[in-house]
Design goal:
Oligomer: heterodimer
Domain E2 binding (chain A): 347-430
Keywords (chain A): ATP-binding, Ligase, Nucleotide-binding, Ubl conjugation pathway
Shape of chain A: globular
Order of helices and strands of chain A: HHEHEHEHEHEEHHHHHEEEHEEHHEE
EC number (chain A): 6.2.1.64
Helix content of chain A: 25-40%
Function (chain A): Catalytic subunit of the dimeric E1 enzyme, which activates NEDD8.
Number of domains of chain A: 3
CATH topology of chain B: Ubiquitin Conjugating Enzyme
Bound molecules: zinc ion
Number of helices of chain A: 14
Radius of gyration of chain A: 26 Å
Largest sheet of chain A: 8 strands, mixed
Strand content of chain A: 15-25%
CATH class of the largest domain in chain A: Alpha Beta
Largest interface: A-B, 72 and 58 residues
Family (chain A): Belongs to the ubiquitin-activating E1 family. UBA3 subfamily.
Distance between the termini of chain B: 72 Å
Strand content of chain B: 5-15%
CATH superfamily of the largest domain in chain A: NAD(P)-binding Rossmann-like Domain
Chain lengths: 430, 183
Amino acid sequence: MAAVVNGNPSSGDWQDRYYDVDQILDRPGPRTAHSFMAGDGVKDFLRNQCKILVIGAGGLGCEILSNLALTGFKDIHVIDMDTIDISNLNRQFLFRQKDVGQPKAIVAAEYIMKRVPGMKVTPYYGKIQDKDDDYYMQFNLVICGLDSVEARRWINATLVNLVDPDIPESLKPLIDGGTEGFKGQARVILPTATSCYECSLDMLNKPTAFPICTIANTPRLPEHCIEWASVLEWPRVQGDKKMDTDDPEHINWLYTVASARAKEFKIEGVTWSLTQGVVKNIIPAIASTNAIIAASCCNEAFKIATTSAAYLNNYFMLIGTEGVYSYTFEHERREDCPVCGGESLDITVSRDWTVDRLIEMLVEKQDIQIKKPSLSTPTKQIYFQAPPQLEEATRPNLEKKVSDLVPDGGEVTVTASSLPFSLSLRITYS
Amino acid sequence: MIKIWSMKKNEEAAAKKKPKTSAAQIRVQKDLTELDLPSTMTTTFPDPADLLNFTLTITPDEGTYIHRMYEGGSFKFSFAINTNYPHDPPRVKCLQTIYHPNVDLEGNVCLNILREDWKPVLNLNSVMVGLQYLFLEPNADDPLNKEAAEELRRSRDQFLYNVKQSMRGGQVKGQQYDKVLVQ
Ligand SMILES: [Zn+2]
C-alpha cells in the first residue's frame, strides 16, 4: 500500500520509491557542483518543478521515457508524428499489438502514466515544426531520440535561436541521442555555448549511396537492383509521380521491378522488407544500442537537472560493431557554423535609408570589412551580388528604403566571400 | 538545474542570436552569390524568388583540341535543392537527350560528387565545375550510356563523329538525340 514519504504526499509515492536515487541527492559528493542543493531543494526541483521535453517516442524515445519516469522526472512532454507499426513491437516496448495504428506519443504517454504512479506525461501527436518558440520556452531540458537529420537540424536551430542573452532560462540544454545499428552517440548541446548539431553535420555517416553507373550496368548486390528500380526506373516509368516510401503499393512496384532485375543478373536476396529498408534508408535498429544510448541521455538529463555530478562534455560515441568501444571527446564549436557561429550585429538606421546606403555602410565598417555583401530576409532576397540574373532581379531594391523591406527589429542575413559564413543584422529604426 | 549562463565561455557568445533564416537557406544564398563560374556556364532561375530550383547551361568551348568534342553545344541541367541541403546533395538532371557516356537517355548523370562522394563541404560551384568537366573529359569507365562509352573506347574518331551527329539533332544507332547546337 502506498505511503507518504519525502514530504510530497500528492505524488502517490510509496515507501522507499526513491531510496536509491536519494543516495545521490541527499548529500554532496566530490563531483557535485557548488550550486548543488543536497536534500529537499534538489528533490523538489526534479520532482515538482522540472519540465522536460522528449522528442521522438520510437526506439530511443520509449527507453528515454521509462528511464526518466523511473529516475524521478514527473512532468514530461513527448512529441512524435508517427503511428505504431507492427515491426516496432520488438523494441518499442511501451507498445502492444492492440496499439498498432495508434499514435506513438499518445500510447507511450498513457503507458507511462499507468505504469508509474504520479507521472504527468503530455503527448503531442504531430510535428515538432507545428510548435512555436513559446512552446519550447516552457521546458527546462530537451531530449531528442530521433532518426531524422532534418528534424534534428530544425530543433537545434530553433533552440539556438531561442537563446536571449537577457533571459538566462532561454538557454535550453539539448541532449541528443542517435543510433544506427550497433553504433550510437549521445551528446550535450548548450545552445550558443557549446558545439551544436549543425557544427558537426559533416561528421555524420552518410547513407550508403552506390555509384549510379554501377546501378545501371554492373549490379552485384540486391541493393543495386533496388536502387535501380527506385532511382532510375521509377522516374522513367512513372514520370513526375512522386514516390511515397510509406505507400505499400509503391514499395510493391519497386519490389517487383527490382526482383526482375535481380533475376536477370542472377542476384539473390531481393525481398520486400529489404526493398523498403533500402528506399527508406532504414538501418536495422538494435534494442540494446537504443537502451545504452537512452540510458546515457537520461543520465545526462539527471545530472544537468540536479547538478549532482559533472555532465558530459560533450560527445559520447558508442561503437558496438566489433566488441564494445566507446569514446568521449569535446566537439569544438565551428566559427563558421551557419546556426550557432557567425556574428550578429544590432544596427540602428534611419527610416529613410536605402538598401544601397546600408550596403555602403557595411562595406565601410572597419570592424567587419565586408566585400560585396548579399542580403536577404528570412522570406525574401534584398540584394544579391550574383548570379547575374538574380543581381538584375534584385537591383531595383537598391533604391528602395530598408524600412519598406525589413520590419522594425527584423533580421537580415548577410553573406559575402570575406565572411566565414554569414552575418546576421538586427535592424531597428531611429 | 545547472546554471549554464554563468558558465558560458565569454559574453560575446551570449550576444550572438541568429535569425529565423534556415541554415539550408543561408547556405544556398552563400553558394549562389559566391559562384565563380567561367563564361561557359550560366544559371537561369524560372522564378527568381525560388533559389532552390534553377537551370544550369553549359556551353563547352575550353580546353585543347582533343577536349573540344562537345564544342558548339548548349547543355541544360536542372538543379533541385531540398531543405536538408547541404546534408543532401542537389538533385541534378540533364534536360535534353544527349549522346554522352556518363549521361543516360533519361537525363541521369553519373558524377561521383552527386551521389556516393557528396560531402557537406562541397558546394554548388564544385558540382557545376564537375559537370562541365564531363564534357571536357567524358569517362568511358563509368558508363550510363553504354553504347557511347563503348564507342569512345573503341574508336575516338567514330565517337567524335557520333557526338557531332547527335548534337545536330540526328540519330546515332537508331536513337534520336536532341539538337543542342547553338549558332
Ligand atoms: Zn553550430
